[in-house]
Design a protein that fits this description.
single chain, alpha+beta, 60s Ribosomal Protein L30, Chain: A, two-stranded antiparallel ribbon, 2 helices, 24% helix
Length: 139
């Protein structure tokens, strides 16, 4: 866990840690980065995977690239919002299993939403991310 991000899971709330996330993430003073919703898009314009897991894997690639750009790590992720078209427990689970690979055991705050549609009919998963930007002293 980052020394500048604290996770809390009050005993009066349901235990979200069993699902791999925290109820509350607190960033110490500093800068925050809000990442636009990332979808299954590749730089070369390759055909999108049909499966939720395949699309989520491409989303994770973009999220990892953003962390790298910021000099941040999974411990610096404060919040993820995961949007899944026609969300069901099975679809959420398939998408989240890819995202857990990105988190590498960290437990940021997470919201998972079922939505009617995304920008184009082919897109099935979109993830927004809020990250604490490490200072040069943190690196």
């Amino acid at each position: 866990m980052s020394n500048n991000v604290t996770r809390r899971n009050p005993s009066t709330m349901w235990d979200s840690t069993v699902n791999g996330h925290s109820q509350i993430s607190i960033a110490e003073p500093g800068r925050l980065a809000m990442l636009s919703g990332q979808v299954a898009a590749s730089k070369d314009g390759a055909t999108l995977p049909i499966s939720d897991g395949g699309q989520a894997a491409l989303v994770v690639d973009s999220l990892q690239a953003a962390l790298h750009e910021l000099g941040a790590a999974p411990a610096d992720i404060l919040m993820l919002r995961i949007h899944v078209v026609n969300g069901t427990t099975e679809r959420f689970t398939e998408a989240y299993s890819q995202i857990q690979k990105l988190l590498n055991g960290e437990m940021p705050s997470v919201t998972v939403l079922g939505v009617q549609a995304l920008f184009t009919p082919e897109l099935q998963i979109e993830v927004e991310m809020t990250v604490r930007v490490p200072s040069t002293a943190d690196r």
